[in-house]
Write a structure and sequence with these properties.
By secondary structure, the protein is mainly alpha-helical. The protein is built from twelve helices and no strands. The protein is elongated, with a radius of gyration of 22 Å.
Length: 292
């Protein structure tokens, strides 16, 4: 058993390296990876405090334009807009990552169960999925966020509930086909336990689909979090949020355009980067799609 696991490591490493090269070889994948790494790097710098205090006020420099001291200028309270935009990106990414991680875990598990076992459990999961799909995503997220106390974790859970049905649908379809595959039937005949068949044979076969969906869902989660913050249901102050920064800048845009341009640019770069990265991953992990 040890020799078998050890032998699998170089093979998996080569496959991972080949997938990364294919992603970077595509224009969409390369641009998406660059934009994503850029925004994530700035967000990490803000998280460790390298960009200054995003909530520190200095009335002496309020409403100043971009300069060497303040790259994106200052707002009406003298706060550094660049530091706030970077901290807002970190907050959005934290919420998006937690939300998509929860949605992936719950949705993929439910999709595996619904697709492999079927029966009453499959019908119950599919029925719940259809109910959630009946609501517009943003409207459902608004209702869930308004029903609980506001914090970054509750916002993440609300967004996760919204996107869980997508992972159920994405997972269930391929599993319906895979349960009739010869290697799955062979495992059943050999007496392998169901959990081993699902984890060792079925789940690895749909990993590529799930990875692409995770990347795309991250961009949607960032947009949803920004929308909730813009509508006043995001992370409460004083924590900076990209959506709330855009909201605050509406009355300042004619005299201080940079207060809206900075958070808006970060949202665009992050969403576009994640979407392009998702396109690159789809092409890299699906050879038929990449050859079209």
């Amino acid at each position: 058993m040890t020799a078998e696991i050890t032998a699998d490591v170089p093979v998996r490493s080569r496959r991972l390296g080949a997938a990364v090269r294919r992603v970077l070889a595509s224009r969409n994948g390369l641009v998406g990876a660059f934009l994503t790494v850029l925004v994530v790097g700035v967000a990490l710098a803000a998280t460790v405090g390298l960009l200054g205090d995003p909530v520190a006020q200095d009335p002496a420099v309020r409403m100043q334009g971009p300069s060497a001291a303040h790259w994106f200028g200052t707002d009406q309270f003298g706060r550094d807009v660049f530091a706030r935009a970077a901290a807002g990106a970190a907050n959005s990414l934290r919420i998006a990552v937690v939300a998509v991680a929860l949605a992936t875990l719950v949705g993929t598990t439910a999709g595996l169960v619904a697709g492999y076992f079927g029966g009453w459990s499959g019908r119950a999961i599919l029925g719940m999925t259809n109910v959630l799909f009946a609501f517009p995503p943003l409207l459902l997220a608004l209702a869930l966020a308004a029903a609980v106390s506001r914090s970054w974790l509750t916002i993440a859970v609300a967004i996760a509930i919204v996107y869980t049905p997508i992972f159920v649908r994405v997972t269930r379809g391929p599993v319906l086909s895979l349960r009739e595959a010869e290697f799955v039937k062979a495992g059943t005949v050999l007496g392998f336990p169901t959990w081993r068949i699902l984890l060792r044979h079925v789940l690895p076969s749909i990993t590529a689909i799930v990875i692409v969906q995770v990347t795309l869902s991250l961009s949607w989660a960032v947009l949803t979090e920004a929308s909730l913050s813009f509508l006043g249901l995001g992370t409460p102050p004083p924590t900076p949020s990209l959506g709330s920064m855009v909201l605050e800048a509406r009355s300042l845009v004619t005299t201080a355009w940079w207060t809206m341009a900075a958070p808006g640019a970060v949202i665009v770069l992050l969403v576009v980067g994640l979407n392009l990265l998702g396109d690159g991953l789809r092409d890299a992990l699906d050879p038929k799609e990449g050859n079209r």
